[in-house]
Structure formats: C-alpha cells, structure tokens
Amino acid sequence: MSKQFDVVVIGGGPGGYIAAIRAAQLGFQVACIDEWKNAAGGPAPGGTCTNVGCIPSKALLQSSEHFEHANHHFAEHGITAKDVKMDVAKMIARKDNVVKQNNDGILYLFKKNKVTFFHGRGSFAGKAEGGYTINVAGKTEEAITAKQVIIATGSNARALPGTPFDEVNVLSNDGALRVGAVPKKLALIGSGVIGLEMGSVWRRLGADVTILEGLPTFLGAVDEQIAKEAKKAFDKQGLKIELGVKVGEIVNGKKGVTVNYTNAKGEAIVLDADKLIVSIGRVPNTIGLNAEAIGLAVDERGAIVVDGDCKTNVPGVWAVGDVVRGPMLAHKAEEEGVAVAERIAGQHGHVNFNTIPWVIYTSPEIAWVGRTEQQLKADGVAYKAGTFPFLANGRARALGDTTGMVKFLADATTDEILGVHMVGPQVSELISEAVVAMEFKASAEDIARICHAHPSLSEATKEAALAVDKRTLNF
Ligand code: FAD
Ligand code: NAI
C-alpha cells in the first residue's frame, strides 16, 4: 500500500520547497521529492538556486569583490594591504559551506512544517484512485500517491551543439562555480546574466576574460541608458565583451579550449583559453519525470505547458518555476509555488508578472522592475523620465562608489510609475522600494514625497522620482 498524501511536490528548488511549505501551512499532508545529492551523496534540497545558482554565485561574487577592494580600493581609505593573495580552494570551501547552510536550513524547514521529504527521483507511474502514483527512486524505491501534484523540476544549462560540457574545460554554471585555480585566460559565450556574473568573479581574481555575445546589442532586455552605463563600467574594469559575434568551431583540447569565431566586422578570430564557460540560457528539465505516463503536455522548448494559474492539461497537476514559461528567476518560482498551494486550498493565489524585479549582481549592480524606455516607446505610451546619478549622492561618495544612476519612467498623464531602472552600488536592495511602489500603483510624486533616510543610497531613488517633475534638490 503506497503512502497517501494530499499534495506531492516533485523538485525541491525555490519553486518546489516553498510550494511544499505553503501547502503544509494550509493544512495539507505534503511530501516533497528532490534528487539533488551533495558530495557525500546525501540530500541537498534547494535546487539549482541553492546548489549551483543564486547562492553560490553570490558567495563567489562577495569573495572576489573583497579581493578587488583589497587590491584596488583600500589604498584610497589609507589602508595598506600588501601581498594580497587569493586562496581559491578556501574561497570555494567557504562557498560550499554557505550552500550547505542553505541545504540544512531547508531540511529544518521541512521538519518544522511537517513536510515529508523523499531523497530520490520522482517519476509518474500513472493515475491512481483519486489522484496519481509517483515512484520515488532513491536509496530505496517506493511509490506514493497524491490527489494534487506540483511539478517544480527546474532547468539545466543549455550546451552549444557539438560542444558538451565536460566541467573540466567546457563549463556550465556548475563547473564555473568550482574552478580550482584562477584561469589565466577565460572565455565565456553569452553575455547574459551568468556570463556577466561569472566573468566578473574570475576577472576580479586575475583572469583575462573575454565574453562573446551573439547579439549586436548589450543586455537587450535592460533599459538602453542603463545598459550603456553598465557597459562603460565593465569596459573600464577590463571585462572584454565582444558583441555581434558568430561562434564557429570549438576545440576542447588537452591544454584548454580554442574558440573560432567571426567578429562583428566579419573577421575570423581564434581565441585560446584555459577554460570556457558556456552561458547561453537554460532549458526546462523534465528528464526522468515520465510525463507521458499521465499525458502531460510539453511544448517544443521542453517546458511544461501551463495556463496563467500554473495548471497543466492534466487535472490536479500543476507546474511552477523554471520548468514553465516566464523568467527563470528564483523569486518568480517561489511566488508561483505559493500561489499554486493557495489555489489548491481554494484561495486566490496571485503572481503579478509586471512587478517581478530583475537583478544582475555585478559591480555596478543592475536592477529593474517594469517596462524599459524602449518598451514604452514600442507600446506607444506617453511617459516622463527622471534620472539621478549616484555621483550626486552623499552616501555613494562616502562609500567610494559613485557609478551609475536611478531612472524613473512614469505615465505622462497620471504620473503612475511604469518602470524603475538602476545601475550602481547595492541597487539589488534599492529596487525593492520600486517594486512596492509599483505593486501599490504609486505615482512618481508619491516616492518624491516620502522621507528617505540621510545619508543613504535610497535618496537617489527619491531624487530620481523628483527628477520626473524636473525638481531634483541635489543635482
Ligand atoms: P530548480 O532550482 O532548478 O530546482 C529543481 C529541483 O528539482 C532540483 O533540485 C532538481 O534536482 C530536482 N528535480 C528535477 N527533476 C526531478 C525529479 N524527477 N525528481 C526529483 N527531483 C527532481 N535566480 C535569481 O532569482 N537570482 C539569482 O541571483 C540567480 N542566480 C543564478 C545563478 C546561476 C549560476 C544560475 C544557473 C541560476 C541563477 N538563478 C538566479 C536562477 C534560479 O536558480 C532559478 O530560476 C531557480 O532555481 C528555479 O527554481 P525551480 O524551483 O524552478 O528549479
Ligand atoms: P541569458 O539568457 O541571461 O543570456 C544568454 C546570452 O547568451 C544572451 O545574451 C544570448 O544572446 C547569448 N547567446 C545565446 N546563444 C548564443 C550563441 N550561440 N553565441 C553567442 N551568444 C549566444 O542566460 P544565462 O546567462 O545562461 O542565464 C540563464 C538564466 O539564469 C537567466 O536568464 C536568468 O533567468 C537566470 N539567472 C539569473 C541570475 C540573476 O537573477 N542574477 C543570475 C544568473 C542566472
């Protein structure tokens, strides 16, 4: 007799584990199945985000930023730091420990919320009376059944055709986060989010970094003015970004990787590198799920087909996060997980796709919410823009980082905030104010009238809101 649950969640990443916790809070008997293994073969819930994504990348970004500061910025503060060295093994061990703390934290949360955790691969066996049977293949095999199933199986890195990841020379995000020594020459393909974050880590540590991007525009999804400002800063740091390239043959040899490509001028270039990181997007993951057993619809990209409420074509089966349409972001996955658990409970869970923030954790950081100036133009919306540079912000000067700006876009008639775009120090934190404002349909004037602590970077947000009405006070 298989164990019966009200809700079974397949996948313990941010979409899955949060859905499981919320469902348990709502009074359901919940199981969560996740197959990720740590180095010892034990459970490591948290998915891509915790194990090879958000968390470890931010740990390495932090370590490498400290190194960069010690080498290049301490002197401005009168601090002498000689012979600054980076122990890469220690940095990676620290990152692994940060990951482990998060894995353990999730296991604790499962216990606290009475979610039954299964370590292994979940696959559909078929329909059962009043629900579905799911086989769990871990150290042992067992079958569990549930009326409601939430699929949160995430995504995997996309490889270039003909160039598989060996995680030694040709690295996905996984290998990029555990390189054992600083490569002399590092090549990356794709100057999206991972390309910029990982490129920044290894450049700060001393690698000669070249990022090859297929598109002619830099960060096409970002507001053009912000992307231009960010590119200027990356150029200054020595991060070489080549746009409009066509990648040709890649040879993975004994000594490293050779990338043949054609640059924007049509010239044939041969780039030798010790390591190559391929960061050209991710593909939804349904490997081993046996989706066919229940007739689950999957689209041509491999994503599970869902409606606006994350319902699949199979009654009682839902899907959230990277495995479905929409941005591949941890917080988007979490919001969908909560909303689905609430819908199962008969509540009105809701995800506002218009107010999902984006952050790129480079230095300067890039963050935005809502529409860009180019989108508003394309949509024919009449808007007002206001910008404020960190150069005129007292806290930024005291920090010693005045790169970038905050930019507001507001409706020309109603003054409602339509988009907020930032590049500069700690904008990953500043963007939340803009998200709250947009969620409450605030006007630019609302933000301009709110008291912001002095001196703080958040004053740049207030000033940019004032700039919409052409009345900045400090610029
Ligand atoms: P995942 O996190 O991929 O989790 C899916 C889980 O399901 C995995 O543990 C997998 O092992 C398990 N699984 C799959 N199939 C089965 C099965 N059949 N049975 C059992 N278990 C299964 N997003 C941000 O918002 N901010 C960031 O800073 C950020 N940084 C990133 C950095 C990198 C390098 C990468 C690669 C991604 C980053 N992301 C970031 C994206 C983020 O990691 C994903 O959007 C997020 O993890 C998606 O969550 P998910 O729950 O849908 O899937
Ligand atoms: P991405 O979609 O951000 O960027 C991929 C880039 O590769 C694009 O600029 C694309 O034009 C380029 N590209 C694609 N094919 C190419 C080719 N053949 N040759 C040259 N260039 C090519 O994808 P990335 O960086 O792999 O990250 C995957 C996803 O993970 C992101 O979209 C994001 O959702 C998530 N992520 C989020 C982070 C964050 O929130 N801070 C950090 C890292 C990842």
Summarize the structure.
This protein has 475 residues and is α/β, with parallel strands linked by helices. It has helices at 14-25, 47-52, 54-72, 88-112, 173-176, 193-204, 224-237, 330-344, 373-378, 394-399, 427-439, 444-448, 458-468; strands at residues 3-10, 30-34, 115-128, 131-138, 141-151, 155-157, 170-171, 185-189, 208-212, 240-242, 246-252, 257-262, 268-273, 275-278, 282-284, 317-319, 358-360, 365-370, 383-389, 405-411, 417-424.
Summarize the structure in words:
With 475 residues, this protein is α/β, with parallel strands linked by helices. It folds into three domains: 3-157 and 283-351, 3-Layer(bba) Sandwich (FAD/NAD(P)-binding domain), CATH 3.50.50.60; 170-279, FAD/NAD(P)-binding domain (3-Layer(bba) Sandwich), CATH 3.50.50.60; 355-468, 2-Layer Sandwich (Enolase-like, domain 1). It contains 13 helices and 21 strands. It has helices at residues 14-25, 47-52, 54-72, 88-112, 173-176, 193-204, 224-237, 330-344, 373-378, 394-399, 427-439, 444-448, 458-468; strands at residues 3-10, 30-34, 115-128, 131-138, 141-151, 155-157, 170-171, 185-189, 208-212, 240-242, 246-252, 257-262, 268-273, 275-278, 282-284, 317-319, 358-360, 365-370, 383-389, 405-411, 417-424. It has a five-stranded mixed β-barrel with strand order 1-2-3-4-5. It has a five-stranded parallel sheet with strand order 7-14-8-9-10. It has a five-stranded antiparallel sheet with strand order 17-18-21-20-19, sandwiched between helices. A hairpin with a 2-residue loop joins strand 3 (115-128) and strand 4 (131-138). Helix 1 (14-25) packs parallel to helix 8 (330-344) and helix 3 packs antiparallel against helix 4 (88-112). The longest helix is centred in the N-terminal third of the chain and has 25 residues, at 88-112. The N and C termini lie far apart (72 Å). The relative contact order is 0.12. The mean pLDDT is 97. 1,4-dihydronicotinamide adenine dinucleotide (NAI) binds at residues 189-195, 197, 212-215, 247, 279-282, 327-329, 359-361.
